[in-house]
Amino acid sequence: MMKERQSAQILVTGGAGYIGSHTVLELITAGFGVVVVDNLSNASEQSLQRVTELTGQAIPFVNADLRDRSAMVALFQMNRFDAVIHFAGLKAVGESVSKPVAYWDNNVGGTLVLLESMERAGIRRIVFSSSATVYGDPQRVPIDEAAAIQPTNPYGRTKACIESILTDLATSDPSWAIGTLRYFNPVGAHLSGRIGEDPRGLPNNLMPFIAQVAVGRRERLSVFGDDWDTRDGTGLRDYLHVVDLALGHVDSLRRVLQSPGHWTVNLGTGTGYTVLEVIRAFERASGRSIPFEIVNRRSGDIASCYADPAHALALLGWRAERPLDQMCEDHWRWQSNNPSGFASTQG
Ligand code: NAD
Ligand code: WQD
Questions:
Q1: Domains in the chain, ordered, with CATH?
Q2: In 3D, which of 5, 34, 3 has the Cα closest to residue 254?
Q3: Residues 51, 57, 63, 69: what is their CA dihedral angle, to the nearest 10 degrees?
Q4: pTM to 2 decimals?
Q5: Is position 155 annotated as part of the catalytic site?
Q6: pLDDT, position 2
Q7: Beta carbon of 93 within 6 Å of any ligand 2 atom
């Protein structure tokens, strides 16, 4: 049984991206067969070349958009997948406010074509990348999975909508196995420093911005407000090492391969750190100083957001193990070895 499960074939959508590439690496290490589909709208194929270098295994890659029905039908005809891990989507909150149609089309439209293709091929096992952003401004922290779903931006609403589609699907046919993962704030990089987050243009998120300041690509960080109701006035979040997150996908995959059913878990550490605490941790890890200035609050931000991760432990036996210092050290190793991301070096 174990042997059969380990050789299962997994389709990873968005597998060339940040979280996808780390997950592909852990899947291969755990003995799964992997095929990646990605349209490279926010990734470089180099991430997969580097995973090949790290694992010694070539990764079948299909450069296609999930919304391309004929490409998806062909993909499912040519392969016999046991399950899908679905990362592909657009993820920038601010951009989703200015381009809502593109976000609904890509995220929801792409998911619908994927689910149609899966139904047609008789594959009913999926692990889906949702986000803590579906909780919006939470009524209390830590946030458990029963908290209200009240996203405050188009990106978050596409995630909540996909969650509803998956719920309807599970109700229509209980033979589906569906795991919905609500990630908190993924950061860090693989220990090798060969793969990591490579944002295009100005980073939206805190740690990639800090890393670019540390490496000299940006002059200083803007800290969005120091008058929040937190221990030092700056925003508090649940930062999660991307390798812990990738391992959470391996555990989730094992679960959907084992039994049908529909479940939703938070993936977070359960501990929050403020912006100033992250700056200090990154300074320690990098040995560089991070110049910053306090500016106005960013529209749509909230004071505090951190997970109650108890359900993931109970259901999957998963818990995050890598502390903030390691998140910063690993993020720094990636950034300092690849100052311009995957464009830094060939190969
Ligand atoms: P990413 O942009 O690095 O990866 C997403 C990948 O999907 C990219 O490689 C992109 O090229 C691909 N893609 C996008 N639309 C596609 C389409 N229509 N067809 C084929 N490929 C497509 O982002 P990530 O940080 O790795 O995030 C992965 C998933 O996790 C996303 O669904 C994101 O919304 C979700 N998520 C991310 C975070 C985070 O902070 N990084 C937090 C919570 C949830
Ligand atoms: C963290 C903290 C900022 C940048 C976003 C999405 C969410 C999810 C993860 C996908 C906050 C502060 C940030 C900067 C700053 N993504 N900050 N200066 O806002 O918790 O979540 O990414 O699902 O949907 O909303 O993460 O990294 O942007 O911000 O002061 O230049 O850092 O105000 O307190 P956030 P973040």
A1: 9-341 (3.40.50.720)
A2: 5
A3: -120
A4: 0.98
A5: yes
A6: 42
A7: yes
